[in-house]
Design a protein that fits this description.
Structural class: mainly beta
Largest sheet: 7 strands, antiparallel
Radius of gyration: 20 Å
Number of helices: 6
Helix content: 10-25%
Order of helices and strands: EEHEEEEHHEEHEEHEEEEEHEEEEEEE
Distance between the termini: 30 Å
Number of strands: 22
Low-confidence stretches: none
CATH architecture of the largest domain: Sandwich
C-alpha cells in the first residue's frame, strides 16, 4: 500500500484527475494526438483505447495533481472510500466503473459481453456499457444487434462461412449520439469513430468474428465462439441509437449518464453532495476551484462535498453517477 495522506484536515477535496493508460490495438489510430493534442507513448503505434479511470489488478489510474498525486484509484477506493466517494459503496470491492476513450480507425471485432447470470460459469465478469459518439467520419458504422429475421441457426451458419457481417444490424451514428449496450447485446464499433465508453469495471469480451484479419503479431486473434453463442441475446433485433430522456442518456443499476449544456458562468456540482460523480468535457471549457482549466476529452472525478466546477465559456459535459440502491 502507498503512504496515503491523512485527509481528515481537508475541509473539502479538490477535483481529481488521473494519468491516462494507453492501450495498443490492431484497430486503433492516433486521433487522441490529433484531436486532443495528447502525447502518445510511442510514435507510429496504433492506440485504440485510453483508459481514463480504472481500478483493475494490472491497470491502475494514478492521480496526477494535488495532495493525492501518485495515489492509485484502487488505494483511494480501499482506504479513503467514504471520504472521497461517499456512502453506499460498502459492498463494492473495487471502484465500480471503467471509463475509456476508444479510437477506432479500423473495425473492432464483433463481440459480446457475458450477462450476470452466465459470467461466473464462463469464468468472466458481466459487462454493461454505454457509448457516446465524440467524433465520427462520414458514413462510419456501429454494428449492434441482429438484422430482422436472423435466427440462432442462421448466425451459426454465418460464423461457419465467415460472413457474420452480413447478418449484423448496422447503424450510422452522428456526433453527440449515444447508445446503451447491455451485456448480451452483439456489437462492434466500426472504423472512423471516437467514442467515450462508460462501463462496469470488467474486461471480459468474447469475440465471435474478427473480419478474417490478423492481429498485431501477425496471427489471427483468439475467438470465443462457444461462449459468444451462449451469451448473445438473439431477440435483440435492429436496435437504434438512443433518445435522451430529458438530460439522461443512459441509466441502469450500474451507472447513470446525463448530458448537460452549460452557459458561460454556470456551475456544476455533484447531484448528491454526499456522493461522487465523474464529469467528461465534451466541448467548451470548465474550471475547478484550484484554478485548473479542463477542455474536451478531459475526465474529472468530483469527490463528495467538492466545490462546484464553473463553465468558463459555453460547454457540454457528461456527468456520470452511480444510482443509490
Amino acid at each position: 500500500m502507498e503512504n496515503l495522506p491523512d485527509l481528515s484536515h481537508f475541509l473539502f477535496m479538490d477535483t481529481l484527475t488521473f494519468t491516462p493508460l494507453y492501450m495498443e490495438r490492431v484497430w486503433g489510430g492516433r486521433e487522441l494526438e490529433h484531436i486532443y493534442r495528447r502525447s502518445l507513448p510511442k510514435a507510429d503505434t496504433p492506440f485504440g483505447e485510453s483508459w481514463e479511470m480504472t481500478d483493475r489488478p494490472g491497470e491502475q489510474s494514478i492521480v496526477n495533481h494535488g495532495p493525492l498525486t501518485g495515489s492509485s484509484l484502487g488505494d483511494l477506493w480501499q482506504h479513503h472510500r467514504e471520504d472521497i466517494f461517499g456512502s453506499g459503496f460498502e459492498n463494492e470491492p473495487r471502484f465500480p466503473l471503467l471509463i475509456k476513450i476508444l479510437d477506432a480507425r479500423d473495425d473492432l471485432s464483433i463481440q459480446v459481453h457475458p450477462p450476470t447470470a452466465l459470467a461466473p460459469e464462463l469464468g468472466g465478469e458481466p459487462k454493461t456499457e454505454m457509448w457516446y459518439i465524440a467524433d465520427t467520419t462520414p458514413d462510419a458504422k456501429l454494428y449492434v444487434g441482429l438484422k430482422q429475421g436472423v435466427s440462432k441457426d442462421d448466425f451459426q451458419h454465418a460464423i461457419n462461412n465467415g460472413t457474420v457481417e452480413q447478418v449484423v444490424h448496422a447503424i450510422t451514428p452522428h456526433a453527440g449520439d449515444s447508445i446503451f449496450i447491455p451485456s448480451g447485446r452483439l456489437h462492434a464499433i466500426g472504423a472512423g469513430l471516437l467514442i467515450y465508453e462508460i462501463q462496469q469495471n470488467s474486461d471480459t469480451t468474447y469475440r465471435v468474428f474478427d473480419w478474417n484479419r490478423m492481429g498485431l503479431d501477425g496471427q489471427p486473434r483468439q475467438l470465443h465462439v462457444e461462449e459468444s453463442m451462449r451469451c448473445i441475446d438473439f431477440e435483440d433485433v435492429t436496435p437504434s441509437m438512443d433518445h435522451p430522456d430529458g438530460h439522461t442518456l443512459a441509466t441502469c443499476p450500474f451507472f447513470k449518464v446525463d448530458q448537460l449544456d452549460l452557459k458561460a458562468g454556470a456551475r456544476i456540482d455533484n447531484p448528491d453532495p454526499q456522493r461522487f460523480s465523474i464529469v467528461t468535457v465534451v466541448s467548451g471549457e470548465i474550471s475547478s476551484r484550484d484554478g485548473r482549466t479542463h477542455v474536451a476529452g478531459d475526465f474529472l472525478l468530483l469527490p463528495r462535498d467538492t466545490p462546484p466546477l464553473t463553465a468558463n465559456r459555453d460547454a457540454t459535459i457528461l456527468q456520470t453517477t452511480i444510482p443509490a440502491h
